[in-house]
């Protein structure tokens, strides 16, 4: 078994992170995005904390990050999850390790709710989130069209922190 390392993402990781993101976009069931933004735009839209990468055998195999769902103060502890595992590394449990680490880091940073929007055809992502303690809180029917014009549903999955005021709550 290859040695697994989870560490904070750095700007130097972007070339591999963006390649993995493009692989996710190509599946047409990981995101509604049709192209990868430049690093500056991606960086501006995601929180500075809770950006992680997973390495398998020294190779960057996946990444995850958070972005705030709403800028208002009352929602400061609520963030949406982005998680992607490289095509050649899928199905080996790396997503579970990465999402578990993200959940722990988010609680340490003070987030009380993590949410994830999962496209209807992404059963693997729904199962991964459920395995990491996310629960299905809703289904949005015919909420968006894919690049082929097909209407799609999304599932909203949510994970609450173990404590009402997680460890880093006061920092937010």
UniProtKB/TrEMBL annotation:
The protein's name: N-acetyltransferase family protein
Organism of derivation: Faecalibacterium intestinale
Coiled coil: none
PROSITE patterns: GNAT
Assigned keywords, A-Z: Acyltransferase, Transferase
Sequence ranges assigned to domain N-acetyltransferase in this UniProt record: 4-162
Record has Protein transport as a keyword: no
Pfam families, A to Z: Acetyltransf_1 (PF00583)
PANTHER family, per database record: N-ACETYLTRANSFERASE, UPF0039 PROTEIN C11D3.02C
Keyword rRNA-binding annotated: no
């Amino acid at each position: 078994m290859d040695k697994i390392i989870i560490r904070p993402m750095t700007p130097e990781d972007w070339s591999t992170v963006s390649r993995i993101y493009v692989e996710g976009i190509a599946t047409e069931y990981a995101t509604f995005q049709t192209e990868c933004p430049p690093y500056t735009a991606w960086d501006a839209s995601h929180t500075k904390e809770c950006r992680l990468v997973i390495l398998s055998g020294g190779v960057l195999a996946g990444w995850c990050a958070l972005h705030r769902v709403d800028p208002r103060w009352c929602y400061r502890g609520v963030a949406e999850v982005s998680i992607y595992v490289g095509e050649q590394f899928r199905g080996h449990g790396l997503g579970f390790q990465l999402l578990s680490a993200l959940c722990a880091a988010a609680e340490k940073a003070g987030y009380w709710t993590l949410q994830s929007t999962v496209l209807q055809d992404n059963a693997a992502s729904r199962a991964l989130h459920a395995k990491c303690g996310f629960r299905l809180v809703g289904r949005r029917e015919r909420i968006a069209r894919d690049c082929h014009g097909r209407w799609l549903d999304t599932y909203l999955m949510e994970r609450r922190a173990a404590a009402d005021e997680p460890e880093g709550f006061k920092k937010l």
